[in-house]
Design a protein that fits this description.
Layout (H helix, E strand, L loop, with lengths): L3 E5 L4 H14 L7 E8 L12 H21 L4 E8 L2 H6 L6 E6 L7 H4 L3 H8 L4 E4 L10 E4 L4 H17 L3 E7 L13 H25 L5 E7 L2 H6 L7 E6 L12 H8 L5 E5 L5 H7 L1
Parallel strand pairs: 1-2, 1-4, 2-3, 4-5, 6-7, 6-9, 7-8, 9-10
Antiparallel strand pairs: 5-10
Helix pairs in contact: 6-7
């Protein structure tokens, strides 16, 4: 279970939405849970002779401290502090990431094309974090309940499933594991998959979600759990799983050095289209229960 929650706060609507989500989650946490509100002031390093305004730093320090006092009143059993950091926002927030810390940030309403929005702080932080990152949209649509975790047979997705299970136990809600697949593309226009081939593919993908469910059941035997493999588009299947989930958890595998700021295609598209909070679990986040099974 997470020992600390860090919220990126700047008094924007997005950061207030992220803080509200954190409050709702942390009310279920054990006493003594640490909450840190972080205000990052972008350092003016590219303009010759320009420096950070001391007045801005002082005002930010007062504002985030006042917000920490308000949060502490809402969470009397938690340890709430605040910090002001000067520097690049991505680098500053990444320093707070570790396997025992959940970093929470809000998203801005997307008004630009996907390509430009892809480099928003949320997607870049999730791709480089050393721990889980929660990205909270400004608006959540529909009536929602339960948690959905996407699994694909990788160790990272199993870690995501275990993390989602811990969240479900924390909230007292059911967990649904979902493996989404599509048959490989057929390039010959006159060829289609026969029934036997589709049955074999279906059984193969059903085994993937079954294995993930077995790992979750061993770790959390009392959890209400369902698991399914479905054919369809990955992102819409995760977001539209009935009943609509209150949280989606997915894994993210690291890319090479050149693409170190990029998420995998599914998790990237999920963030671009999210209408519900999403937690991204990097493959840098290890789970000791999984390590014990695979060692």
């Amino acid at each position: 279970m997470m020992q600390r929650t860090v919220v990126a706060w700047d008094d924007s609507v997005e950061s207030r939405t992220a803080t509200a989500w954190m409050l709702d989650r942390t009310r279920h946490a054990a006493p003594g849970h640490e909450v840190v509100l972080v205000r990052v002031i972008e350092e003016v390093g590219l303009i010759p002779g320009a420096t950070t305004d001391p007045g801005e730093y002082a005002a930010a320090t007062i504002a985030v401290a006042e917000e920490a006092v308000r949060v502490a009143r809402e969470l009397p059993s938690a340890r709430v502090t605040s910090q002001v950091v000067i520097g690049d926002t991505l680098t500053a927030l990444r320093r707070f990431t570790d396997p025992a810390t959940l970093v929470v940030l809000g998203t801005q309403a997307r008004t630009t094309p996907h390509l430009r929005f892809a480099w928003a702080i949320g997607t870049r932080l999730a791709a480089t974090a050393l721990g889980p990152v929660a990205i909270v949209p400004r608006h959540v649509s529909g009536v929602r309940s339960g948690i959905v975790a996407g699994v694909d047979g990788s160790e990272t997705s199993t870690r995501a499933a275990l993390f989602a299970a811990a969240e479900a136990v924390l909230r007292g809600v059911p967990l649904h594991l979902l493996h989404v697949w599509l048959e490989p593309p057929v390039w010959q226009a006159d060829y289609v998959y026969d029934d036997l081939t589709l049955e074999l593919l279906t059984a193969e993908h059903a085994a993937i979600v079954h294995d993930a469910a077995s790992a979750v059941k061993r770790a959390y035997p009392g959890l209400t759990l369902t698991a399914n493999a479905v054919r369809g588009p990955t992102v819409r299947s995760l977001l539209d799983t009935p009943p609509l989930p209150e949280l989606v958890v997915v894994g993210c595998r690291s890319r090479g050095a050149v693409n170190r700021f990029l998420l995998g295609s599914a998790s990237h598209e999920l963030i671009l289209n999210l209408d519900v909070p999403v937690i991204v679990i990097s493959d840098r986040v290890n789970d000791p229960r999984l390590e014990g099974e695979t060692s």
